[in-house]
């Protein structure tokens, strides 16, 4: 059947993406105030219809992506036109309103706060007055984030500030400006994955055709995409022997979101294996200089050092340590704290230990450093005190770039990606039925994993499994 071919998947995915975008115009994460009237509420009945359309479109997109991956894994004559497919699937989302999250309104409001002279590391968007730049964005910031200081680094705040300055704080142009940054981030990820992976088509399938990335990085404009793109770009340069410039990119990625710092350990391993043990600290020193220089140049201060844990105060159901800590606290003392905080801390300590162990194995040549970085980021997310669906992309993109998309881990990450797209509504809310839908997809995926392993018996991530990542010939 033509619809099950590669070209059919391209058409189906584009249709699904178009349905998601069309549904978003009435059921997306629409602003509270929007003077242009383009993204104004359309009434309850139309909103329900639009939400159903978006869910149907999302399911079609996931099905098309999955079939495309099966064709790639089976070597079914899929032409190497993954980037064409990506263009078709991304295009409908470019001019859509914010989807699946209100975070972009926080980004715009924080950029406006910098322009208005507020300390973004001491206050939240609620400090913006009705006549200030970014006031419309601040009014649309969701829930707890209204009074939460920015956990982001100065590099991202400079970009948000530039968008607000260029657009005059007008909401619709500012959102489109943030989406352009998301598209640049997507381009960086594509460039890095193509440079690192030997099987480019399969790696791009898991890393960038992934619906979880499309709806949350392109649709939702999360700055995680920019962090991933800069981080992977830095690793690519390090693999090619340009480790100083690579460390600069990783330092910039850290100044978007701090988890990118994990990459420095594995870049250090790459450098030390070539130049000797003392060089392991070189990437960290370069990145630290970049962080300090970026902070001084941005003029936002070093407050980002104290706001890295602010998000942990907000409970997310996807955080295992938060859920276990909450349950233990209520069971033992009748209150969440202090047991919840203690369990979260233990989780982070275990994550650090696992990251260290993976780096040591990479140093000993037992696993490829790039694959080790992917595992480290997956472990960090799994044990983090605050987890959002799109955090899975941190490790998924790296595992894909390491050539492990066909391995059991790659399949597990693909199943989790397909499940987690259902956790949030297009409006950004997290309904109970979202977890039910995600659970159903997860159960189906587990059944599929047992029935149809793509790469049974392959020793994934073994030393030399990704020649380009080890030898620098990517």
Topology, element by element:
Blueprint: H1 6-27, H2 44-73, H3 82-90, H4 103-115, H5 135-139, H6 154-167, H7 171-196, H8 200-207, H9 211-219, H10 224-239, H11 243-254, H12 262-275, H13 282-298, H14 320-332, H15 339-363, H16 369-382, H17 392-401, H18 408-420, H19 432-451, H20 467-471
Helix pairs in contact: 1-2, 1-3, 2-8, 4-6, 4-7, 6-7, 7-8, 7-10, 7-17, 8-17, 10-11, 10-12, 10-17, 11-12, 11-13, 12-13, 12-15, 12-16, 14-15, 15-16, 16-17, 17-18, 18-19
Radius of gyration, taken over Cα atoms and rounded to an integer in Å? 22 Å
Number of strands: 0
Shape: globular
- Mean of residue pLDDT values: 90
State the share of residues found in helices, binned by percent. 55-70%
Ends: how far apart? 37 Å
Describe the sheet with the most strands.
none
Order of helices and strands: HHHHHHHHHHHHHHHHHHHH
- Helical segment tally? 20
Supply the helix-strand structural class.
mainly alpha
Give the percentage of residues in beta strands: under 5%
Task: List low-pLDDT spans.
Answer: 456-474
Concise description?
It contains 20 helices and no strands.
Could you describe the 3D structure shown?
With 474 residues, the protein is mainly alpha-helical. Helices cover 62% and strands 0% of the residues. The protein contains 20 helices and no strands. The chain has helices spanning 6-27, 44-73, 82-90, 103-115, 135-139, 154-167, 171-196, 200-207, 211-219, 224-239, 243-254, 262-275, 282-298, 320-332, 339-363, 369-382, 392-401, 408-420, 432-451, 467-471. α8 packs antiparallel against α17 and α15 (339-363) packs antiparallel against α16. The longest helix is centred in the N-terminal third of the chain and has 30 residues, at 44-73. It is globular. It starts with 5 loop residues before the first helix and ends with a helix. The model is unreliable at 456-474 (pLDDT under 50).
């Amino acid at each position: 059947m033509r619809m099950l071919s590669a070209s059919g998947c391209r058409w189906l995915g584009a249709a699904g993406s178009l349905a998601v975008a069309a549904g978003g115009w009435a059921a997306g994460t629409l602003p509270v105030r929007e003077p242009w009237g383009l993204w104004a509420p359309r009434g309850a009945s139309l909103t329900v219809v639009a939400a159903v359309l978006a869910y149907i479109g999302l399911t079609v997109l996931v099905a098309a992506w999955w079939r495309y991956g099966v064709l790639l894994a089976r070597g079914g004559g899929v032409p190497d036109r993954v980037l064409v497919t990506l263009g078709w699937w991304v295009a409908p989302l470019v001019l859509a309103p914010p989807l699946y999250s209100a975070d972009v309104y926080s980004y715009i409001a924080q950029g406006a706060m910098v322009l208005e002279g507020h300390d973004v590391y001491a206050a939240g968007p609620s400090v913006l007055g009705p006549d200030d730049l970014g006031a419309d964005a601040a009014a649309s910031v969701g829930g707890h984030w209204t009074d939460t200081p920015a956990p982001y680094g100065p590099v991202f705040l400079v970009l948000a500030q530039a968008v607000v300055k260029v657009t005059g704080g007008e909401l619709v142009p500012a959102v489109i400006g943030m989406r352009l940054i998301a598209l640049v981030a997507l381009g960086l990820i594509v460039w890095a994955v193509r440079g690192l992976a030997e099987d480019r088509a399969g790696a791009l399938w898991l890393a960038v055709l992934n619906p979880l990335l499309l709806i949350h990085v392109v649709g939702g404009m999360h700055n995680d995409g920019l962090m991933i793109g800069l981080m992977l770009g830095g690793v690519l340069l390090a693999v090619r022997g340009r480790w100083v410039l690579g460390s600069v990119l990783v330092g910039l990625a850290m100044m978007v979101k701090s988890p990118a710092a994990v990459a420095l350990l594995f870049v250090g391993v790459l450098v030390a294996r070539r130049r000797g043990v003392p060089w392991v600290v070189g990437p960290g020193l370069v990145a630290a200089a970049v962080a300090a220089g970026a902070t001084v140049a941005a003029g936002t201060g070093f407050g980002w050092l104290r706001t890295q844990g602010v998000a942990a105060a907000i409970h997310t159901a996807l955080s295992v340590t938060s859920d276990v800590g909450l349950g233990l606290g209520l069971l033992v003392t009748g209150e969440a704290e202090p047991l919840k905080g203690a369990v979260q801390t233990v989780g982070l300590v275990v994550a650090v230990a696992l990251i260290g162990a993976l780096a040591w194995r990479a140093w000993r040549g037992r696993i490829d450093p790039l694959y080790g970085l992917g595992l480290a980021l997956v472990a960090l997310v799994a044990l983090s005190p605050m987890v959002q669906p799109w955090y899975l992309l941190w490790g998924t993109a790296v595992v894909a770039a390491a050539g492990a998309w066909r391995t059991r881990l790659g399949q597990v990450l693909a199943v989790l990606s397909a499940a987690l797209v259902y956790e949030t509504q297009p409006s950004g809310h997290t309904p109970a039925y979202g977890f039910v839908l995600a659970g159903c997809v997860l159960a189906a995926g587990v059944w599929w994993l047992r029935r149809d392993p793509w790469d049974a018996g392959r020793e994934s991530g073994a030393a030399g499994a990704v020649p380009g990542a080890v030898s620098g010939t990517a």
